């Protein structure tokens, strides 16, 4: 999808972080925007920013874990702009902790947002995008933790592995269409995801404040911490070039290679 000008992009989690940074880049390419977010205040601020730049924009408060909410957002997008070319399933949450310490509510909340949120986006948008016949692209945010197991992030890894699998299958299923698919797998990016429990619903455990990492702790993380605009540039490139995998940290390459080496070596054990 080399020419983005005149197209329409829908971005969940679009009021901050990677979503907002990508919205800015897509707007600079000449795209109209539909921003979806669970938080009304930041969503209003983001919409006001683009309106101030004369970018056609629509903000829709959306719970991606609720299919009806996503369908209503899709209806609003088509009602306003008549088409959707890019869907960025970006909204997500994160929980730290060992699997044995996780509650059922932890699992339910994480899967509802991270995995069902992407599934709902595909369900609500893809059939209509195919029917419209326009060139398009679907990007879904997974994580480095969707490619390599991370200690203390078991629940998160399960959801993100699912997003990777969904995107890989989608890429295959769409090869004979004019719609591409990508999966974003970053390491640490400077966003608000570490504080995502602030929006956790009461029935699934309620809001919580998570202690932020110190600057020293951040510096010690593998791959370092990169800024959202850097990720946004890679997302836009992937849309234009129909790239399946979007990897943002060079350090992730060695960890991914080790994982597949472990898988490959298992054949040697079975050969006897």
Question: Which features characterize this protein?
Answer:
7-stranded parallel β-sheet; about 270 residues; about 45% helix; Rossmann fold; 9 strands
General description of the model:
With 272 residues, the protein is an alpha/beta fold. It has a single domain, classed as NAD(P)-binding Rossmann-like Domain (Rossmann fold, 3-Layer(aba) Sandwich). The chain has helices at residues 17-28, 40-51, 67-81, 104-132, 154-173, 215-220, 228-241, 252-270, and strands spanning 8-12, 32-37, 57-61, 86-89, 136-141, 179-184, 189-190, 226-227, 245-246. Helix 2 (40-51) links the parallel strand 2 and strand 3. The longest helix is centred in the middle third of the chain and has 29 residues, at 104-132. The chain is globular and about 60 Å long. The chain starts with 7 loop residues before the first strand and ends with a helix. The model is unreliable at 211-221 (pLDDT under 50).
Please outline the helices and strands.
Layout: E1 8-12, H1 17-28, E2 32-37, H2 40-51, E3 57-61, H3 67-81, E4 86-89, H4 104-132, E5 136-141, H5 154-173, E6 179-184, E7 189-190, H6 215-220, E8 226-227, H7 228-241, E9 245-246, H8 252-270
Parallel strand pairs: 1-2, 1-4, 2-3, 4-5, 5-6, 6-9, 7-8
Helix pairs in contact: 1-7, 3-4, 4-5
